[in-house]
Amino acid sequence: MTEQEMSPEDLTTEQRKKRAYDEKYRAEHQEELRAYFRQYRFDHLEEKKAKAKAYYLANKQRLQAKQRKYNRAHTKDWKKWQNARMKAVWDEIFRIYGDSCSCCGTKTRYFLTIHHIHGREEEEKNTDRYSVWKRAVEVRDPKAYRILCFNCHLGGVHHNHGVCPHRGRKRVNEWDDYGDGS
Ligand SMILES: [Zn+2]
Ligand SMILES: [Zn+2]
Questions:
Q1: Which of the four pLDDT bands, split at 50, 70 and 90, describes residue 119?
Q2: Is the pTM of this model over 0.90?
Q3: 46 shares its domain with 127
Q4: Among residues 157, 139, 129, which one has the least CA distance to residue 97?
Q5: pLDDT per residue over 4-52, tens digit each?
Q6: Among the listed residues 88, 77, 80, the one whose alpha carbon sits nearest the alpha carbon of residue 130
Q7: Which of 77, 100, 117, 170 would you call most buried, defined as having the most Cβ atoms within 10 angstroms of its Cβ?
Q8: Distance from Cα 148 to the centre of ligand 2, integer Å
Q9: Is the pLDDT of residue 84 over 70?
Q10: Could you write out the DSSP letters of every residue in 81-101?
């Protein structure tokens, strides 16, 4: 047991005095000490990183095995949590934007997706699906988002210049007729 861990009754008078002094000192110099440690951490950042890296490399196999074991043990929890989170955000999306394709009306959930009418904004481009959906919930604007099934979404947004082929073929380029069969 270190001196710090001992309860006051077990300390000698000398030790008690020292502890009281230290506590008083810390209380009176709180800001200074904080600034000092902040600066210290800042000055030793690279050193700390290098140490952590060296430690990792020296113990790589053991650490990786530990991580794998942890992942195995927690995969189920993690997936369960992720699914619950996804389902919650989807429920919210359907509540706000309707629960069927806004073009053909299909209601099968697995066929549905959310379409960002004005295209994804810059900051959304590299984020995960959850964040994109979450944003649709926050924005809550039917002029910005609509529910579409994958057919209407893919057929319209990607193959027919933004118009679902259910609403007619849109020809912009001379090669637009290629292979559409209509
Ligand atoms: Zn549809
Ligand atoms: Zn459609």
A1: confident
A2: no
A3: no
A4: 139
A5: 677 777 778 888 899 999 999 999 999 999 999 999 999 999 999 999 9
A6: 88
A7: 100
A8: 8
A9: yes
A10: HHHHHHHHHHHHHHHHH-SS-
For tokens 């964040």, the residue is 131
Name the residue with tokens 């290098």.
50
Return the ligand number nearest the Cα of 165.
Answer: 2
Q: How confident is the model at residue 113 (pLDDT cuts 50, 70, 90)?
A: very high
Taking the C-alpha atoms of residue 169 and residue 112, their distance in angstroms, rounded to an integer, is 22
CA distance 46 to 77: 36
Residue 88, token pair as written in the block: 């919650």
- Nearest ligand by distance to the CA of 102: 1
pLDDT tens-digit readout, 65-79: 999 999 888 988 888
Considering the domain boundaries, does residue 51 fall inside one?
yes
Give the C-alpha distances (Å, rounded to integers) separating 1 from 7, 19, 179: 11, 16, 80
Half-sphere exposure of 9 (CA within 13 A, CB side): 0
How far apart (Å, rounded) are the C-alpha atoms in residues 57 and 42? 24
- Tokens 């959906």 locate to 133
Whether 42 and 95 map to the same domain: the answer is: no
Q: Are residue 108 and residue 84 in the same domain, yes or no? A: yes
**Considering the domain boundaries, does residue 41 fall inside one?**
yes
Distance 132 CA to ligand 1 centre (A): 20
